[in-house]
Structure formats: structure tokens, C-alpha cells
Amino acid sequence: MSAVNSIKNFFGLGDEHVVADYIEDDEYYREEPVHSDYLSERDYGHRYESERRITARPRLETIALTHYREARRVGESFREGNIVVMDITRLERQDMTRMVDFAAGLKFALEGQLEKLAKGFFVLAPKGAVLDTEEIKARIGIA
């Protein structure tokens, strides 16, 4: 066999169809069935809604912020299931924007509600809480 014929056969272009090394083995390629005992739930450290503490009637908590570092207080109170009124009137303009963005993230993550009450006042309510903004305004003393 010449070198040219060997190359043709190697690439499958020759007349010889020698497939000595290639044996199709259906048993080898058969997929193993997946057993349900392999599919166990994994805990990645996330807390799910069923584990959150939500009070039957949410408590109204007003937090007057003076710096963005205090955002954690808002997040913790909201996570506990409270209705949180944020007073951001004492924050610098840049921190006001950051605080509203933070509250919007909390709202999205915990499926809550976020409403503007007045200039510099926002209310953050947990999922399922009935939100009466006029009543909240009256309770905290803003018009």
C-alpha cells in the first residue's frame, strides 16, 4: 500500500473501508438510569420564606437615618416582618439614592412593597401586608 493510499484510507477517502479499531459497543454507550437517591436536596445556607419570622400583624417601625451605614437596621427590621418607614431627610443626596436602591433590593428579594410617603419618607412593607399610606402618614406625623 502506498503512502497516498494510506493517507486516503486514514481520512476515509480510500477504497478500503477497514474499520478494525472501531467497534460500536452499544452496551458501553448505554446511559445508566438515574436513581432518585442520588438527587438529594442541598442546603447552600439560604433561608427560605418558610423560615422567616413574620408576625401576624406587622409592627410599624420608623427609622431616621443619618448615614448609609445604618441601612442594616432597615434590612433587619424588614426581614423580621415589620413595616419600616425610612426617614432619609438627614442623609446626603448620594446616600439618599443609595438608601432607596437598597430598599428596592430588599423589596425585590423578599417580595415586599415599597412606597414613597412624602419627600424623604419611604415605607417598606413585607409580602402580604396591607399598606394604607394615609394611615401610616398620620401615625408618624407627616402630611
UniProtKB/TrEMBL annotation:
Subcellular location: Cytoplasm
One annotated GO biological process: FtsZ-dependent cytokinesis
Quaternary structure, from the entry: Homodimer. Interacts with FtsZ.
UniProt protein name: Cell division protein SepF
Its biological purpose: Cell division protein that is part of the divisome complex and is recruited early to the Z-ring. Probably stimulates Z-ring formation, perhaps through the cross-linking of FtsZ protofilaments. Its function overlaps with FtsA.
Gene3D superfamilies: SepF-like protein (3.30.110.150)
Keyword terms, alphabetized: Cell cycle, Cell division, Cytoplasm, Septation
Family membership noted in the UniProt record: Belongs to the SepF family.
Native organism: Corynebacterium kutscheri
Coiled-coil region(s): none
